[in-house]
Amino acid sequence: MIKKITLIGMLIFMLFVFSSNISWLEDNIDTTTKDYYIENSLYETGSRNIVTGIYLDYRLFDSIFETSLLLITVSGITFMYKKDDPTL
Amino acid sequence: MKNSQILVCISRVLFPFVLVFGFYVIVNGHLTPGGGFQGGAILATAILITYFIIPERINIIDGLVRLEKHLFLWIIVVGSLSLITKGTFFTNPLPIPAAISFKRIFLVLLNFLIGSKVAIGLVAIFSSFIEEGRS
Predict the structure, then answer these.
(1) Residue B51 and residue B12 in contact, taking contact as beta carbons nearer than 8 Å
(2) Size of the A and B interface in Cβ pairs below 8 Å
(3) How much is the ipTM here?
(4) Quick one: average pLDDT of B8-21?
(5) Do the Cβ atoms of B121 and A73 come within 8 Å?
């Protein structure tokens, strides 16, 4: 019972902190990057979808390592699947 | 693995539509929401439907992983093309004032490579799970 009351109290406190921070953020938000992408993305990358323009042109370095992550995952799973194979 | 007749029939109807939708999401990644990763996941789903249709599917995991490695190398090569034309890594090889329709070739090519790579990777993962569960 004490655990539940403590948990609910902590959750209410976190809700209060988050909501007060969000109301503070509304006045101090910085939209420089967003405005830049919205204005120049079609001209610079040729993509009407801004997300594609970001992950295939501005941040292609990140995308390549993201695909390498999947490759490493597949290699690991295949290794564990083939572990009992006598040819290895 | 035993399947009901209704599931097999519905899977046979559904398979080409899911396949075409996956290709649509990949190829239109620069115009509408979606892209390589999402379309690749849909393609992997379409290929996994064939496990309902033919449960005695052959096991080709080695070839899949090898193909995925080659596709990853091709992604790096296509991404590094801008080193020759612009002098910097990992951006569009065409200059910025070029026509938009020419610059879209690069986006479609990379989306297609990433989509095939993600589809092949997910199919390899699920194939190994299915084979492990069957044995």
Answers:
(1) no
(2) 90
(3) 0.79
(4) 92
(5) yes
User: Pick from A56, A33, A81: which is nearest to B109 by CA?
Assistant: A56
Domain count within chain A: 1
- At residue B24, what is the residue type? Y
What is the reported pLDDT for A88?
58
Q: What share of chain B is helix, strand, coil (3-state, %, to 5)?
A: 75, 0, 25
Contact B100 A63 (CB under 8 A): no
CA angle B85, B89, B93 (to 5 degrees): 35
pLDDT of the residue at B115: 93
Residues of B in contact with A48 (CB under 8 A): 30-31
Cβ of residue B125 closer than 8 Å to a chain A Cβ:
yes
pLDDT band for B24, please (50, 70, 90 cuts): very high
Q: How many domains does chain B have?
A: 1
The domain of A24 spans 1-30
By residue range, what is the domain housing residue B75?
Answer: 5-134
The three-point CA angle B18-B19-B20 to 5° equals: 95
Which pLDDT tens digit goes with each residue over A13-71? 999 999 888 888 777 778 899 999 999 888 888 888 899 989 888 888 998 998 999 99
Position A30: which residue type?
A: D
Q: Is residue A84 part of a domain?
A: no
A53: chain B residues, CB-CB within 8 Å: 30, 107
A17, part of any domain: yes
